Amino acid sequence: MTQTLCPYALTPLTAGESNDEHILPVALGAPDNFTVRALVAENSRMNDLIDEPTIIDPLVRFMAMSQGVTSRSGSVRATVDGAVRGSGESVKATFSQNGVDLKFHPPVDTDSQGRVIGVRGFGEDARKMAEQIAANYAKKGIAVELGPETSQGRPQLDLGLGGDMLMIQRQLFKIAYLMTVRIFGDEAITGSSGQQLRAAMMAETDEALAAIGITGGVDLPPGLARSAGHSEHAITCAVFSAGLVTSVELFGCFRLFVVTPLDGISTDEGTGEVITINASSSTLTSRPYLEALPDLMAVAFKAKSAKTAA
Prior knowledge:
Elements: E1 18-22, E2 35-39, H1 40-55, H2 58-66, E3 70-71, E4 74-75, E5 78-84, E6 90-96, E7 99-104, E8 108-110, E9 116-119, H3 125-139, E10 157-159, H4 165-184, H5 186-190, H6 192-202, H7 206-212, E11 215-217, E12 232-240, E13 243-250, E14 254-260, E15 272-278, E16 283-288, H8 289-309
Helix pairs in contact: 1-4, 4-6
């Protein structure tokens, strides 16, 4: 199908400067060419409203890190706030594929006049930081004597990993909407389906989402693609007799399916596409829905059989 309209402004793409809008953020493992077109200003606005808050969400970022996702700036790292059990000292834990880096926050203690009176760190960090501070003071002609070190042995840390599930849900709706645009073009933008999905991705409360009356859920029914593991994303969008059905599953744990009206969609039942993305390698596989359907049903039957046996 042809897309001539901006999916957000609903105006012709020729009305201003346009660029590629990623259907799924690159920072979550999508390939750079998985896009539709949008006006630059609208693309930037949606990035600020939905994409960026999702990308920096601690839970989402931890999942991306754990699967070895690489963004434009390099391998994704996840930073988690926490505290030392007992003392309550604040710490930050930065997780990567290579391990975890622990730091106190702040690492330096000062007196009422701003003079450094102590430093804290894990392993050799405290000693190295103290030596660097002493060297910096020496450059100013100030002699600093390093005091004795004290150790807490093996402290226990309490780390919190939170996720904004409403923001993640908005991202899922945004992906679903842009997937419909990828397949059905302007028809997905101008019809009732586009209207509902745009409203859903902008809903900031559960009450606002409920007021839209959009149909769907989080348990994917048979016939929709599921992630094969935590390193995979799966997206399905196809015309059913009941409506336009779109599902999204990210990292095998964040999922959504919606059924939106078919008015304005002029294609036959069964028309659609199934996308799977390996988030670790940013590789994409696309199949027509009817071609993929037997495999999707086989996976659903196998999952149901395994659940029954358990």
